[in-house]
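Supplementary Methods, section 5.1.

A reviewer requested that the exact input to the structure prediction be made available. We therefore reproduce it here, unchanged from the version used in the analyses.
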Amino acid sequence: MSTSTILLLLIVGAVLYAVYLYNRLVSLRQTADAAWSDIDVQLKRRYNLIPALVETVKGYKNYEADTLEKVVKARQLGMNAGSVKEHEQADTMLTQALGKLFALAEAYPDLKANENFLNLQQQLSEIEDAIQNARRYYNAVVRDYNTRIESFPDNLIAQKYHFTPKEFFELEESEKAAVKKMPEIKFD
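The structure derived from this sequence is encoded token-by-token as follows.
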């Protein structure tokens, strides 16, 4: 083989490898976008249940208006959120407000026994589980994507074609503390 043939094969090989790296980055970016879309769908499902929950609780004379207002405000913030950070903050606010709402329901035996309320509570619980699963998957894909765009030689392609890091969808510190806190168990 001549030197020019070897040089041509090396150039073709380098171009093919660069195309492979580019396509792998595009694939990871698309997977991360799809994973975010899955989270967004679950968040919207939760936001759609909130009005029914609020109306169910409002049906009780002595409901806590302040708590309901916080739930409605957090829902609205979530629906208007644009970035991952904004969704993260709204998610934390809504989780805390719903936690207070369900804790208050303990003081109203009729509400606690209301079939519609129990059904909504069950649906929200299932959606919360789906959100957590979607969050874990999204964060894993984002970790892989961010690692690739920072690793050599992928970072050369990432810089040239403007692949930017994606944000993780994490629990806020207050939500982390609530998750870690053990429930108080009393035996009467």
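Residues 3-58 form the longest helix (56 residues). These observations are discussed further in the main text.
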